[in-house]
Amino acid sequence: MLTSSLTPVKPIPSQSRLAFVFLAVFIVCAAGLIAILNKAGFHLMTGVQMAFMTAILAGGGILFSFTLAWRMIPGSRWGVPFSLVLALSVLLPIAGIALLFPWTTSSAFVSEGWPCASLELIIAVPAAVVYWLLARRGALFASSGLGATLTGLAVFLALLPLQFQCMFQHAPHLLVWHGGTAALLVGSGALIGKLARRARLRKQELKDG
Amino acid sequence: MGEISIDDRELRDLMTRYQNADAAALEDLVARVSPPLLRFFGRSGIGRSDAEDLLQDCWIRIHRSRHTYRPSEPVMPWIYAIARHTRLDAYRKRRRLESREVLVASIPERLHQVVPETPSEEDHFSRLVANLPDSQREVIVMLKVSGMSLEEVARATSSTPGAVKQKAHRAYAALRRALGKDRESAR
């Protein structure tokens, strides 16, 4: 059966090349969106806040780009365990926001938050689709980990321009509306990955009779 | 017990030729890699025929994902990473089927009766290894049965060499305890 379907195949690009492609998409899209959207956050953040948030969100993009490239090649080497990637990408932003941003809320907490959550969704969902299109040649074994990595990268891509656009630079707003939406998106990505794997198994079972 | 290490340079050459649609290279690769893969599946606590089914499924997956192999990378971790997915999917499928079967009816007790056989050394080792937790068992099988290095096992299991070493140490300790118990009960 294997020999009958034997055709030449082109090997997938190297892990570092794949990571640079993902990173290039991240940089181009984030820079483009920052240029297009309004820049209220730029004027409202202090130098320290701006430096910290840029470092954290761009760092997340780099980390997830390399993690996604690692997931595309079975048996490839990547020194940072995925659990550590997740822990860093959750704990560092929470700690930084909690320490550097003021803990004040306005009476319009919900109505101020919805536009940010919607914008994050509007950017992250198409970005996740783009990353899936780029990664699908290698990502043969759909899983919750792959889904979480894909959406994690797309979420960082959305959070960076959102941070510079947002006019509510307070810890509760950033944690709930930016961070909470990000967590929901990554969770949904993990769930989609899990369901895709299950669907593939079912399809195979039906095929096998 | 230890598998003779398969020359990685030869395997890389075979894989590259396989990617270029060389049927002879594919046959050679199947002949070389299937025995350790069959042992890997066989140590998962399943029967020989199930292990053979898994091996066949694994080769189909290897075939479908052969473009993801990079000629500069070692072959065995790539193959074992795919084998792990195959085994994990089979385990999930089995669990789902078992849960359905239990809901339909309880199985008559007579079917569970197995004719006892005198266990060989190989069976004894398999039984001890089968009692290990999944993550420790696969590390032991890759290291000691397939003859892979710590680095190769780390790649195949998406882990780090340090984590693999730790799992192996825990598995050795568990095996020592189990052997000690067996000796005591034999006295």
Question: How would you sum up this structure, described in words?
Answer:
The complex is a heterodimer of chains A (209) and B (187). By secondary structure, chain A is mainly alpha-helical. Chain A has one domain. Chain A contains seven helices and no strands. Chain A has helices at 15-36, 40-44, 47-72, 82-100, 109-135, 144-165, 171-208. Chain A is elongated, with a radius of gyration of 19 Å. Chain B has a single domain, classed as Arc Repressor Mutant, subunit A, CATH 1.10.10.10. Chain B has eight helices and no strands. Chain B is globular and about 60 Å long. In chain B, helix 1 crosses helix 2, helix 2 (23-42) crosses helix 3 (48-64) and helix 4 packs across helix 7. Chain B is mainly alpha-helical. Chain B has helices at 8-19, 23-42, 48-64, 75-104, 121-130, 134-145, 150-156, 161-186. Chain A binds chain B through residues 1-3, 5-12, 14-15, 72-79, 81-82, 137-138, 140-141, 197, 201, 205, and chain B through 19-21, 23, 26-27, 30, 59-61, 63-74, 76-82, 85, 89, 92-93, 151, 154-156, 158-160, 163.
Helix content of chain B: over 70%
Q: Sheet with the most strands of chain A?
A: none
Q: Which geometry of chain B do the CA atoms define?
A: globular
| Number of alpha- plus pi-helical segments of chain B | 8
Most strands sheet of chain B: none
| Total domains of chain A | 1
Draw up the topology in text.
The complex is a heterodimer of chains A (209) and B (187).
Chain A: H1 15-36, H2 40-44, H3 47-72, H4 82-100, H5 109-135, H6 144-165, H7 171-208
Chain B: H1 8-19, H2 23-42, H3 48-64, H4 75-104, H5 121-130, H6 134-145, H7 150-156, H8 161-186
Helix pairs in contact in B: 1-2, 2-3, 3-4, 4-7, 6-8, 7-8
